[in-house]
Amino acid sequence: MLIIASQIPLGPYFRRVGLMPLFIFTIMLPQVFISSFEYAILFTFRVCLAVSFLIIFTLITPFKEILSSLRFYKIPEILILTLSFTYSYTYLVFNELYRILIARESRRFNNKSYRKIWNEGGELLGMFFIKVYERGENIHLARISRGYSNMPYPVKFVKFRLIPNIIFTAFIALVTVGWMII
């Protein structure tokens, strides 16, 4: 209902949610033997519902608006800065990992034993953390040199629209009631 109301394209949504129930149920499989099959299904449903809601929320709302909303609701600034840095450095981390893996594959030309591959993997992991830390420090110093401070950006709120907010509130109410009943 929320997907249709918010006019999210179904392709990106199902690409993000597609294998999630199978993955969560696989993790919950030992719980079937400890308690019951119904509990594992119920837990899988609840986790899928919560993650699905977060995916819908992030597809609907730009990240800057999420941060400004958190500031509006007086969430501690250190938490907002942590989220902001995490979001901005995610690309940095994956880019550095990609570069290290490409460099490794370009240097590897013969078959090695699994022990040698694991040893090299440990070395690469250590090098990865050091490179990401150094690059993050360089980016932070560049931000400071360009006048960055921890002060929040000015908050611009869009005009309040009644229908999406009513649908959103109804969805939250239904999820909460469903969570308590089930």
Give a verbal description of the structure.
Helix 3 packs antiparallel against helix 4 and helix 6 packs across helix 7. The protein is 80% helix and 0% strand. It is flat. By secondary structure, it is an all-alpha fold. The protein folds into 2 domains: 84 residues, no CATH class; 72 residues, no CATH class.
Describe how the helices and strands are arranged:
Elements: H1 2-6, H2 10-17, H3 20-34, H4 37-60, H5 63-72, H6 77-107, H7 114-145, H8 162-181
Helix pairs in contact: 3-4, 6-7
The parts where pLDDT drops under 50 for at least 5 residues are none
Distance between the termini: 19 Å
H and E string: HHHHHHHH
- From the helix content, strand content and strand pairing, which structural class follows? mainly alpha
Q: Give the integer mean of the pLDDT values.
A: 78
- The value of Rg in angstroms is 22 Å
Largest sheet geometry: none
Instruction: Give the fraction of residues assigned to helices.
Output: over 70%
Total number of strands: 0
Percent of sequence in beta strands? under 5%
The total tally of domains equals 2
The helix tally amounts to 8
